[in-house]
Write a structure and sequence with these properties.
The structure is a single chain. This protein is 6% helix and 51% strand. By secondary structure, the chain is mainly β. The chain has a five-stranded antiparallel beta sheet with strand order 4-3-2-1-5, with no helix packed on it.
Length: 69
């Protein structure tokens, strides 16, 4: 079961941990700043030195939670 879009929208701009499932059925988690939510993807920018950006399909997101510092 995936997370619904209205549950994700209030977290835009916050540092979050996104748990999702890949095409190969592996569970992964990423921590970063939630930049935006498109029609199909969640745009996440990592906070670790690399500054990588990820586009994670909304249907793959299993859980999302805000990370407190």
């Amino acid at each position: 079961m995936s997370v619904k879009r209205p549950d994700i929208e209030p977290l835009i701009g916050s540092v979050v941990e996104v748990k999702y499932r890949t095409e190969k059925k592996a569970d992964k988690a990423r921590i970063g700043t939630l930049k935006s939510i498109g029609l199909r993807n969640v745009h996440l920018e990592t906070i670790r030195g690399s500054g990588r950006e990820y586009m994670i399909p909304i249907r793959s997101v299993r859980a999302i939670s805000e990370v407190s510092a």
